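Field reference: sequence -> structure
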Amino acid sequence: MPMSNNTYDIINKIERWLPALGAAYVGLAAIWHWPLADEINQTIAVLCALIAATLEVSTARYKDSINAISK
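Structure field:
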């Protein structure tokens, strides 16, 4: 099932903001002595990689469908 443009845009924005969230948590954890800063940041990094791969697959499928229509 193809991803809608709106869904793609939302997921793309989330993927762009997650690294900033991870960096903010690590910085604030150092100041406020919050727990598990490294683990949370690494989890966010893994989620970013998974989301980026999903978006890449979606983009490739979209391009394939456009190429199939134009032939």
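Note: The mean pLDDT is 94.
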